[in-house]
């Protein structure tokens, strides 16, 4: 596999850091996740809930990883982690600012342990600046860089507040994995490691370039547009036959408009002066949406997709989870969903790595680890500790 021979130490919780390590693990890196039974990864859930090894979030983010429990409140525990870093290539961390420093694991301190170490630090607002120490998590970062506001509908009474999604965590996680790959290539060429400073809010904000450009160039504050977009009309989600079934359609420019009209049977309203140009269609989009919906209600989403796609028009049914499993031929053909046997959960369906490589294909080869599942094996194989030494550490509570 592409990253075979690379060892990653994961000191993380939540989603951003674990996503970096998950991506690296799918391409062959040995990922050793370090946590404590006293304070396990937040996505595991607590021991009182009986979910330590049964959390869907944790299962998704921790496949292909090894799990080692170490009590980081003990000096011997911190020393063990430093020993593991000394025989590793990459450290991934996303704890609050200052935690690594209190453990004696700043970048400069890690360089003394392993001069060519690559450290990636993922924080909500980055590792520098006046707000770097502020408490953040994925959903509230969406509001901070403006995504939830722009996701709103134009006629809504107020901008949407917190979104129940962790998009910035996953965005920064994927971008972070790419940054680690670049750092590994740099190390291969120069022999030098480096520290990667990743801000989740900036990874998310990078997707809003056109909105920022509109403000800088035109002095215009972008407003929520719902499903609409300049240069496209009709554009949106339209009701289809069936109970609460929808289809999305996006028609750009004049050539697509003509093909759209032909594909829908050249209805009388297609010749209406209100819809003669893209500008006039945008100005009368509410009326146009109502007329398009009158046509879509007569057909299923799949029928609409087939007719419009054949005419070169972007269209697809809005799918729920059942649709994706039972009726999405594209997902089935590419093997998007795979089944894994989790020790305490039984069979679990998850998604396969999304980027295929012909010579070094990524793989999901191991279930998410039980808490502490690999502690003894890693200490024995990576640090060459004896059984007696491991037993002594266990008795002292260092491996708790």
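^ structure tokens above, recovered residues below v
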């Amino acid at each position: 596999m592409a990253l075979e021979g690379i060892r990653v130490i994961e000191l993380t919780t939540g989603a951003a850091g674990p996503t970096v390590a998950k991506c690296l693990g799918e391409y062959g890196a040995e990922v050793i996740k370090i946590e404590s039974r006293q304070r396990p990864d937040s996505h595991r859930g607590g021991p009182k809930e009986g979910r330590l090894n049964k959390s869907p979030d944790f299962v998704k983010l921790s496949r292909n990883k090894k799990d080692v429990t170490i009590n980081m409140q003990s000096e011997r525990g911190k020393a063990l982690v430093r020993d593991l870093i000394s025989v590793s290539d990459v450290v991934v961390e996303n704890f609050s600012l200052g935690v690594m420093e209190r453990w004696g694991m700043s970048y400069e301190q890690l360089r003394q342990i392993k001069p060519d170490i690559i450290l990636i630090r993922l924080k909500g607002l980055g590792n520098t600046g006046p707000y770097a120490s502020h408490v953040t998590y994925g959903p509230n970062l969406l509001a901070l860089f403006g995504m939830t506001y722009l996701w709103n509908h134009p006629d809504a009474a107020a901008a949407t507040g917190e979104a129940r999604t962790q998009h910035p965590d996953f965005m920064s996680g994927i971008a972070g994995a790419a940054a680690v790959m670049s750092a590994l290539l740099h190390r291969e060429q120069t022999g030098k490691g480096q520290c990667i400073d990743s801000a989740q809010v900036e990874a998310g904000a990078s997707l809003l370039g056109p909105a920022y450009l509109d403000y800088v160039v035109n002095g215009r504050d972008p407003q929520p547009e719902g499903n609409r977009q300049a240069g496209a009309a009709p554009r949106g989600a339209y009701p289809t036959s069936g109970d609460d079934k929808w289809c999305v359609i996006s028609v750009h420019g004049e050539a697509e408009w003509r093909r759209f009209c032909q594909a829908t049977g050249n209805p009388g309203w297609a010749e209406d002066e209100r819809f003669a140009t893209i500008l006039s269609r945008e100005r009368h989009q509410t009326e146009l949406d109502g007329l398009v919906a009158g046509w879509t209600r007569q057909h299923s989403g799949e029928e609409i997709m087939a007719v419009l796609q054949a005419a070169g028009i972007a269209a697809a049914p809005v799918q729920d989870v059942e649709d994706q499993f039972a009726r999405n031929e594209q997902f089935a053909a590419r093997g998007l969903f795979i089944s894994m046997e989790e020790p305490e959960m039984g069979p679990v369906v998850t998604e396969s790595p999304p980027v295929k490589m012909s010579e070094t294909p990524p793989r999901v080869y191991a279930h998410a680890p039980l808490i502490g599942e690999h502690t003894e094996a890693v200490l024995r194989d990576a640090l060459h500790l004896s059984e007696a030494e491991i037993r002594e550490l266990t008795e002292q509570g260092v491996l708790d």
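The chain has two domains: 7-206+336-395, 246-317.
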